[in-house]
Write a structure and sequence with these properties.
0% strand; mainly alpha; 83% helix
């Protein structure tokens, strides 16, 4: 009876471990899509409302329904207005490191690249740069979607199989 309870606990634990890894992959895709959506909103704010970058970032931060994105955009907006960092890229990179990096997004270099947007140029050039980065993010999302289908099944199956192997070894 004790061996049976132990076997069930081991299989359940390894299965949950596999499900956790699958959840991480799916969460990463979900957050990449959220970030892309916020960049599209930023593009719209710059194009239609003709706002400055700090104003557009603050507005997106206030309207975002995702806490980490809201905090990120407000952080960048406030630091741009206060000139805490030496430029937009450093402010953006600090925001990525503080608010976005630890939420299953491992593409911090791609996300940081968005911070190199040339603020000294006119709105059309900024929008063109932003559109280019959005298309890179779309490509990354497509690659991640293809990767998720295979890896999630592998993680879930490996969790169950690992538990069964451990149980067989211990019995």
């Amino acid at each position: 009876m004790i061996k049976l309870c132990g076997a069930v606990c081991i299989v359940a634990g390894t299965t949950c471990y596999g499900l956790f890894y699958a959840f991480q992959k799916k969460s990463r895709l979900w957050r990449l899509k959220q970030f892309k959506e916020s960049l599209l909103c930023l593009s719209g704010q710059l194009r239609v409302a003709r706002m400055t970058m700090p104003q557009a970032l603050a507005q997106i931060g206030q309207k975002s329904r995702y806490d980490y994105l809201s905090q990120f955009y407000i952080f960048v907006s406030e630091n741009l207005e206060q000139h805490t960092y030496s430029g937009f890229w450093e402010t953006w990179a600090a925001g990525i490191d503080s608010y976005v990096r630890d939420i299953y997004l491992t593409e911090s270099d791609i996300l940081k690249n968005i911070g190199s947007i040339p603020l000294h140029l006119d709105i059309q050039m900024q929008l063109a740069f932003l559109e280019e980065n959005i298309s890179e993010l779309e490509n990354l999302i497509e690659e991640t979607q293809k990767d998720i289908r295979a890896r999630c099944r592998i993680y879930q199956s490996a969790g169950v199989i690992a538990g069964l192997v451990i149980v067989l070894i211990l019995i």
